[in-house]
UniProtKB/TrEMBL annotation:
Name listed for the protein in its UniProt record: Sodium:phosphate symporter
Membrane topology: Multi-pass membrane protein
PANTHER family with a match to the protein in the record: SODIUM-DEPENDENT PHOSPHATE TRANSPORT PROTEIN 2B, SOLUTE CARRIER FAMILY 34 SODIUM PHOSPHATE , MEMBER 2-RELATED
Subcellular location: Cell membrane
């Protein structure tokens, strides 16, 4: 009973220490890791190397996989490069075995753990105003707890061979150890912890070398359970990456179990390793390295095969980015949110064109309107498009709520608030146009000369406004000259509204005193014209304000934008 309790206590301390180590390293190096992931995945070999390096540093393949998923979903790296990082993370996570073997079983743990824990705790408590020091201290606290937990587990199981006849374990088929490693890893959700248990059991003589090797292979299969569970209700790309993890691990682990495991004793003799602990970690690193050697040359073909798996999510028909992206990595989530708000602005622009019966090429060049034409193909008619626009705004709002549930700084919260306001303004603008669709249709049909002239006037002005708004939306940067043009467009919108209202007022002055005398325009039509003019003004002003907010958030303004 004491052995079981001691093992559980030691494992609990070890896992908690590992969690603190991961949290500290994540806080300490999160921004650097994000930059590495986003910049060093241009080629498959670089993406694999990034996965190995980053996972070796932070000792958490789960954290790296989560970041990769977020960046891939945000469109920052393609699927095949994301797969490369995940495969590299498999090799990177084996470094924990080398660390545990070197520190945990070759040094006096008690002499290391408590000083690490005590000194780093003091730094942690007195460094509230120094976030980097505090994060570093948290990581060292985690390392101290990890080593202490390992010591407890070692002490607990060292007497186990004296209490049980281990010969019965030796008679068990090797495949049983494979299944045990797989199931235990799936239960504790940590291949590193399972590697620790295996090394401890091997060090204490509970299992022999082949059994320990089988446990490690089983742990490598079992670690895929985390990605499987995470993708059950996830997006399409989450399922694709989970499938990549499962297929890769199964192929590599079956090869390791059937081919490499029988050759392990000879391999140890060949390289001159006599310590079975180092033999196991060498075996674990070797089959993961061989797996990369087998898969990397065919990574593009593997990713193409993955891209054809699983159907589209229901929300994928509405959003372009949100359905793919986790909110756990804030920077990637914010980039995704910006891209989706831009998609909403483009959808609003296509609806704006449709409400006045403009073709895309009336508003811009083929290159400028290419994205708008793709958006327009997803719905039929203004009403269906408006429903999709509102649904997209709802999805953006829900995504923002999930994004705000993680730890954000003041600047990030402000960015989300501005993006939500941008989306809201754009939807309000289209609501104004929706309310006058039937009136625009009547003026377009033209039962009088005044109706036709009114329709022609608003069409001419709106065509020019939309052309300029599209140009601003697709600008890489608003310098002082372009910013002046943006402000001039605001003035132009107000002036055209005023001129239109003056023309309508002139129609009112033409009404004769003799009620029996007929005019080309009725009082009801004049009222409708005034209403249409007002709603068009609100729509244009709403789009302008939405663009202004979008420029601020995406930092496309090179000068002061008040």
């Amino acid at each position: 009973m004491n052995i079981i309790l001691g093992t559980i206590v030691g494992l609990g301390i070890f896992l908690f220490g590992m969690h603190q180590l991961e949290q500290g390293l994540q806080s300490l190096g999160n921004n650097r890791i994000k930059k590495i992931l986003s910049r060093s995945t241009e080629k498959p070999i670089f993406s694999v190397a990034s996965g190995v390096t980053i996972t070796a540093i932070v000792q958490s393949s789960s954290m790296v996989s989560l970041m990769v998923l977020a960046f891939a979903s945000a469109g920052m790296i393609p699927l095949f490069n994301a797969v490369g990082v995940i495969l590299g993370a498999n090799l990177g996570t084996t470094f924990s075995g080398w660390i545990v073997t070197t520190i945990g079983f070759k040094m006096d743990l008690a002499a290391i753990a408590l000083p690490l824990f005590g000194l780093s705790s003091i730094v942690y408590l007195f460094s509230e105003r120094r976030p980097e020091w505090r994060s570093g201290a948290q990581a060292v606290i985690g390392l101290g707890l990890l080593i202490f937990g390992l010591s407890e587990m070692k002490d607990a199981v060292e007497t186990l061979p004296l209490l049980f006849d281990l010969s019965s374990l030796g008679n068990m088929p090797i495949v049983v150890y494979l299944l045990v490693g797989m199931l235990m890893t799936a239960m504790i959700q940590s291949s590193s912890a399972m590697t620790l248990i295996t090394l401890t059991a091997l060090h204490s003589g509970i299992v022999d070398l082949p059994a320990a090797a089988a446990l490690v292979v089983g742990a490598d299969i079992g670690t895929t359970s985390t990605t499987i569970l995470g993708s059950l209700r996830g997006s399409r790309i989450m399922k694709q990456l989970a499938l990549a993890h499962v297929v890769y691990n199964l192929v590599v682990d079956v090869f390791a179990f059937l081919v490499l495991l029988p050759l392990l004793p000879r391999a140890m003799n060949f390289v001159g390793i006599t310590d079975p602990l180092y033999g196991i970690v060498m075996f674990q690193s070797s089959f993961n390295f061989i797996g990369l050697f087998l898969f990397v040359p065919f990574l593009k073909q593997f990713s193409d095969w993955l891209s054809k798996r699983f159907g589209k999510d229901e929300e994928e028909y509405i959003s372009l980015y949100l359905h793919n992206t986790s909110t756990e990595v804030t920077d990637a989530g914010l980039i995704t949110l910006e891209k989706e708000v831009r998609h909403l602005l483009e959808m609003g622009m296509t609806l704006n064109m449709q409400s006045f019966h403009f073709s895309p090429l009336q508003i811009g060049t083929p290159e400028q309107v290419q994205s708008l034409q793709k958006v327009a193909k997803k719905y039929e008619g203004f009403n269906e498009g408006y429903v999709r626009l509102k649904r997209l705004e709802t999805l953006i709002r829900h995504y923002s709520i999930r994004l705000e549930s993680v730890s954000l700084n003041v600047k990030q919260i402000e960015r989300i608030s501005l993006l939500l306001e941008c989306a809201r303004d754009n939807v309000f603008a289209l609501k104004s146009l929706k309310d006058i669709q039937s009136d625009l249709d009547l003026f377009r049909q033209g039962d009088s000369e005044s109706s036709l002239l009114f329709n022609q006037e608003i069409s001419n002005s709106q065509e020019e406004i939309l052309r300029r708004q599209l140009s601003f939306l697709q600008s890489d940067m608003l310098d002082e000259q372009r910013l002046n043009q943006f402000h001039l467009l605001n003035d132009m919108i107000s002036q055209q509204h005023q001129a239109l209202n003056e023309d309508i007022a002139e129609s009112l002055r033409l009404f004769p005193a003799d009620k029996n005398k007929e005019l080309d325009v009725s009082a009801a039509q004049v009222t409708t014209m005034l209403n249409v003019s007002r709603e068009i003004l609100h729509a244009n002003q709403g789009v302008q304000h939405a663009l202004k907010l979008y420029f601020k958030v995406t930092e496309k303004v090179g000068v002061n934008f008040s």
